[in-house]
Hints:
Elements: E1 6-9, H1 19-35, E2 38-41, H2 53-66, H3 89-101, E3 105-108, H4 112-124, H5 140-148, E4 154-157, E5 164-169, E6 173-178, E7 186-188, H6 196-206, E8 211-215, H7 219-231, E9 238-242, E10 245-246, H8 262-268, H9 272-280, H10 295-301, E11 312-313, H11 316-329, H12 332-345, H13 355-368, H14 378-381, H15 383-386, H16 394-401, H17 406-418, H18 425-439, H19 444-455, H20 463-468, H21 472-487
Parallel strand pairs: 1-2, 8-9, 10-11
Antiparallel strand pairs: 3-4, 4-7, 5-6
The chain binds glutamic acid (GLU).
Glutamic acid binds near residues 12, 214 and 218.
Amino acid sequence: MPNAIRVRFAPAPTGYMHIGNAHTALFNWLFARSQGGSMVLRVEDTDELRSTDEALGVIYEGLRWLGVDWDEGPDIGGPYGPYVQSERLDIYQAYVQRLIDARQAYECFCTPEELEEQRELMRARGIPPKYDGRCRDLSQEDKQRLRAEGREPCIRLRVKETGKTIINDIIQGQVVYDNALIGDPVIVKTSGYPTYHLAVVVDDHLMQITHVIRAVEHLPNTQIHLQLQEALDIKPPQYAHLPLILGEDRTKLSKRHGAVAVTDYAEQGFLPEAMFNFLALLGWSPGSEEEILSRQEILDRFSLEACSSSPSVFDVEKATWMNGEYITNADAQHVADLVLPLLQEEGLIEQDLTPQRRQWLVKVVDLMKSRVKLLSTFSSWARYFFTDDFEYENRARRQWLNDSQTPAKLETLADRLEALSEWSADTIETTVRGLAEQMDIKAAEVIHPCRAAVTGTTIGPSLFHLMELLEQSDVVARLRRAAQLSAAGELAPTDQEDTPSGPAT
Ligand code: GLU
């Protein structure tokens, strides 16, 4: 039975889902689920010009991918709906009327040009710019005259001009704002649409939200929300403002830093559980040095009090490392499911897999998953399992394929392997080592050229096990091909830079 704790994730459907949004959603979810509370999804589409259904779809997709679910929301309803602000306009209107009747709000007829002039004047006088309050006390005649000029009013909240607004934030501690600096904010636009400030305060109240957990960028808004709540005689929820997320250059995370949309990370091959783990550690600490924590472990230990107020850095390299840990430890069947569509897209594997072929893919994945940090790079790391069309890396050429001994060595090995009646890692190993012994050279001197010929690379998983997963005839053909190319001098190092054996990530 949910207790009285209620939180909300309240995105504006105006674009892609930023890592910061995902972080906020995740922390709300962690708090709700760790406390047995309820999670509400509320769509804040008061920016009527920029909100789109498509953007809302992206939000749903991002949340589902991360495994963040909700108990009430536009798609599932709930006792406090509607959960889309544009469907609640009459509700806000009633609150605005209350404020106007109590002289807590008033019509403002200033044009954008006049507002800019006011700000200019203040800047020139060296004072922080704000609305100067000139429409606060207009008479009925003034208003009629301004209307007759064709002006459309907006509605502003009358804020206190003196004193302080104190926010006792669970994460940021006590934050004090000087009321004289606020300036009366707009609560209803000339279009008749409420602004974010009004809608958020009314909805948090009516939806009985107990804890507002959101990005620290909203902290300055909170002083307005507290004043609105006071004017409406509404008990404020508790506030917890999450720390800023920075890019690696320690500036606020933005598109300049590359991918910032959650879906981009999904496309790049992040596992949702790795992203979940990574985001949870941005601004929260489990109280130990541990970094790989399951969803349940995070839930068991999560508290808002353990969140930090200082900014945290979205370190892509670390996120990628963490993803690699998750892939390595994931079940091969699961990883195979995830890489299959990527392989199909590249035409490396057929669309309809027989059960045997699927089993084979799982074995390939099992052999390779500890080397892959992003699912999207699996196909290049493991390319040689799927096609003979692979490059011979420069290092492989230089170290093993350009030697005068290579062609004979590879041809002999091809003959021996071709003669095997049983194709297994054991028989392959015995053959390779047997040849080295017979030639009186170190096993490595056969193993390395063999790997270079069969895979084009110098490093990879156990050679005998990977060869077992290839067709015997394909291996033999690759050995002969490399032998011939080598004899023809076509495997000399190129002047290209050394590529790592497979992509670095
Ligand atoms: N719609 C706001 C945003 O997307 C939500 C702010 C809040 O949580 O109050 O930033």
